[in-house]
Amino acid sequence: MQRYFVSNKQLKDTMIEIDGNDYHHIANVLRMNPGEQILCVVEQKGTALAEIEEISNELVFASVVEWLNEEKELPVSVTIVSGLPKGDKLEYIVQKGTELGAASFIPFTAERSIVKWDGKKANKKIERLQKIAKEAAEQSHRTIVPNVETPVTIRQLVDLAKSYDTLLIAYEEEAKQNERATLSKTLLNIEKGASILVVFGPEGGLSQSEVNILQEAGFKACGLGPRILRTETAPLYVLAAISYQLELN
């Protein structure tokens, strides 16, 4: 069943008004008709099973049939920090990371990041990434849309880290040295509801100075197995490991 995220103001008593791109998707792409049902995730309220009552020239009107009790989110809040990669790799990270349960994404201007985002470009990039996150959240039946932040520097990242419970760095030098315990031990001891911030480097990895700064701020470096993973693969590995440990065991 198709899922849409709507704001509180779109809920009028027991009627949900859907406009914009979601209206277009319902009316013109799926060509849905009155009587068909959809799922609407209302911010701060929950998921409603709704039945389409009317499709006008600009709005879809759907009435709430029932509120559902869904448990779709990871038991911990995971923020992925990605050193700005080349091409569309960050789009891939956001899309697949959303499917795997990430709560938010923070692009990171690392020393070895080849691409640079200026103010205007950054706004357009973030807008597109946020759209990708929304579509991936709908596809994977999430109950929240992960937030995509504007790029930060290493110093801004250190400041942000103060509000998280657990701080990790995925560092390939640890993998080369066969370090395999940090991630496992962290997940074994983590509590439900905790917040986790995990930093990943760009294609060239994190510099030693960046690792030193982060470790001084309380981050623990961890390896991700004996193989060296690409910048777009490593976040997905960590999210899958978290899901396995906390949801499937």
TrEMBL record:
Q: Which UniProt keywords apply?
A: Cytoplasm, Methyltransferase, rRNA processing, S-adenosyl-L-methionine, Transferase
Its Enzyme Commission number(s) read: 2.1.1.193
Mind telling me which Gene3D superfamilies this protein's record contains? Answer: 3.40.1280.10, Hypothetical PUA domain-like, domain 1
**Which InterPro entries does this entry report, sorted A to Z?**
Alpha/beta_knot_MTases, PUA-like_sf, RsmE, RsmE_MTase_dom, RsmE_PUA-like, tRNA_m1G_MTases_N
Q: Where is the protein localized?
A: Cytoplasm
Q: Which residues form the signal peptide?
A: none
Cellular component terms (Gene Ontology): cytoplasm
Its domain of life reads: Bacteria
Enzyme class of the recorded protein, top EC level: transferase
Instruction: List each coiled-coil range.
Output: none
Keyword rRNA processing appears in the UniProt entry: yes
From the record, give the transmembrane residue ranges: none
Q: By its UniProt entry, which Pfam families does this protein fall under?
A: Methyltrans_RNA, PUA_4
Q: State the Gene Ontology terms under molecular function.
A: rRNA (uridine-N3-)-methyltransferase activity
Catalysed transformations (reactions): uridine(1498) in 16S rRNA + S-adenosyl-L-methionine = N(3)-methyluridine(1498) in 16S rRNA + S-adenosyl-L-homocysteine + H(+)
BP-aspect Gene Ontology terms? rRNA base methylation
Q: Which residues form the Ribosomal RNA small subunit methyltransferase E methyltransferase domain?
A: 72-243
The residues covered by the Ribosomal RNA small subunit methyltransferase E PUA-like domain are 18-63
Protein function: Specifically methylates the N3 position of the uracil ring of uridine 1498 (m3U1498) in 16S rRNA. Acts on the fully assembled 30S ribosomal subunit.
As for family, the record states: Belongs to the RNA methyltransferase RsmE family.
What's the protein name? Answer: Ribosomal RNA small subunit methyltransferase E
Organismal lineage: Bacteria, Bacillati, Bacillota, Bacilli, Bacillales
